[in-house]
Amino acid sequence: MTILETPRTILREANHDDAPFILQLLNEPGWIRFIGDRNIHDLQAARDYIDLRFRENYEKLGFGMCVAVEKDTQSPIGLIGFVKRDTLDAPDIGYAVTEAHQGKGYAYEVCSALLDHGWNVYGFDKVYGYCLPDNGPSIHMLEKLGLTFLRDQDVNLSGEMCRLYMATRPSAQKKTPHR
């Protein structure tokens, strides 16, 4: 299911056909360094990850991490979406773009459209974002998206402190809840 389109991308729900892409992305050095090793080392593990980490959230929450696809090539280029964590009182926006597509503005293009979608379709009042303190590109992205630094927090209860950012619904946007 398509969530939204931007000039260069389509953001859609993940499915089992995305397993080779998930396997590739989750094993790129940047993913492992800044997000963590998810121990996804074969296609079946990638399909299971899609079911447990993405599809369950679509069914339970109506949103989740999605696959960003480049329109020109119809190739997946990243994972971008909202996640609801037990440690936060609102969803957070997450993004990871393949190394081959980094630095081309894709993450900003999709994330800014997704934030608008979160305010106008899902009816969010606030959205968080977080990253490791040494992830300069993600810090820059969160700030460019209009999120403001709140504090350092162990968001995942992993013993690892992250930089936590937040944005609130722009006052001019009306709330029209998704559910």
Automatic annotation (TrEMBL):
Any idea where the N-acetyltransferase domain is? 9-171
- Pfam families cross-referenced by the UniProt entry: Acetyltransf_3
Q: Name one GO molecular function term.
A: acyltransferase activity, transferring groups other than amino-acyl groups
> Which PROSITE patterns does the UniProt entry name for this protein?
GNAT
User: Mind telling me which InterPro entries this protein's record contains?
Assistant: Acyl_CoA_acyltransferase (IPR016181), GNAT_dom (IPR000182), N-acetyltransferase (IPR051531)
Q: Which UniProt keywords apply?
A: Transferase
Q: Tell me what this protein is called.
A: GNAT family N-acetyltransferase
Species of the source: Thalassospira povalilytica
